[in-house]
Amino acid sequence: MSVLGVPKMLVDRSVKLARMPIDLTLGAIGGLRQPTPEEQLADKQREHAERLRGEADRERREADEERRERESLAREAASARKQKAAESTAKKERANAKRERSAKLEKLEAKAESIEAKEAAARVEREAERVKESATAAKQVRKDDADSRD
């Protein structure tokens, strides 16, 4: 505490001590006296300020409630979009897998047809070889017969 503050403190306390009996008397009688216009105005202003604070609190609560509802709706909408995107992706993946299976099946069928065609070509070639051999044998037999008749 500074030296300059000591006299002020002493004066304040002296004034309070001197006024105490007067304040006590006025406080006891205070309920009987009429409030001054300034006091009435101050009371009205306090009441008005309290009402305004109450309204501000109510509006703040309502705004918070609305914000929470909007955020909830936004989360639900985002969740729905994500789910729709996931379903769309899954559908595309299933379609791609189906397309790949179809392509593999077509490839296998083409391979099977190719093998069947090769087998048929090999059969025809073997048959042609047999016919050729039998024609050569028949020709040889006719030649041998013709030589034996001469």
Overall strand count? 0
Shape: rod-shaped
Largest sheet: none
For the CA atoms, what is the radius of gyration?
57 Å
Estimate percent helicity.
over 70%
Structural class: mainly alpha
Classify the beta-strand content into a percent band.
Answer: under 5%
The string of secondary-structure elements, in order, is HH
- First-last Cα distance: 161 Å
Please tag this protein with its features.
92% helix; 2 helices; mainly alpha
Task: Write up this protein.
- By secondary structure, this protein is an all-alpha fold.
- Helices cover 92% and strands 0% of the residues.
- The protein is built from two helices and no strands.
- It has helices at residues 5-29, 37-149.
- It is rod-shaped, with a radius of gyration of 57 Å.
- The mean pLDDT is 87.
Please summarize what this structure is.
The protein has 150 residues and is mostly helical. The chain is built from two helices and no strands.
Layout of helices and strands:
Layout: H1 5-29, H2 37-149
